[in-house]
Amino acid sequence: MPYILIQITKENVTTAQKQQLIQEATDLVVRVLHKDPATTFVVIDEVDTDNWGVAGESVSTIRNRQRIGK
């Protein structure tokens, strides 16, 4: 019973995009591992950009800097 966790930042991801992630992640596990899609679970965890960091900064800080062009 595969469990797939997709973590992304909360940045305007649409319901259609999430559905596509779920479908394509399921299809990948079915194709590569020959698992039953009926028992393949996909969870999308949307993390606030204040709680996601890279290179010592939060994504919120990075995005704000990009918005103001610095």
TrEMBL record:
<comment type="similarity">
    <text>Belongs to the 4-oxalocrotonate tautomerase family.</text>
</comment>
<dbReference type="Pfam" id="PF01361">
    <property type="entry name" value="Tautomerase"/>
</dbReference>
<protein>
    <recommendedName>
        <fullName>Tautomerase</fullName>
        <ecNumber>5.3.2.-</ecNumber>
    </recommendedName>
</protein>
<dbReference type="InterPro" id="IPR018191">
    <property type="entry name" value="4-OT"/>
</dbReference>
<keyword id="KW-0413">Isomerase</keyword>
<feature type="domain" description="4-oxalocrotonate tautomerase-like">
    <location>
        <begin position="2"/>
        <end position="61"/>
    </location>
</feature>
<dbReference type="InterPro" id="IPR014347">
    <property type="entry name" value="Tautomerase/MIF_sf"/>
</dbReference>
<feature type="active site" description="Proton acceptor; via imino nitrogen">
    <location>
        <position position="2"/>
    </location>
</feature>
<dbReference type="GO" id="GO:0016853">
    <property type="term" value="F:isomerase activity"/>
</dbReference>
<dbReference type="InterPro" id="IPR004370">
    <property type="entry name" value="4-OT-like_dom"/>
</dbReference>
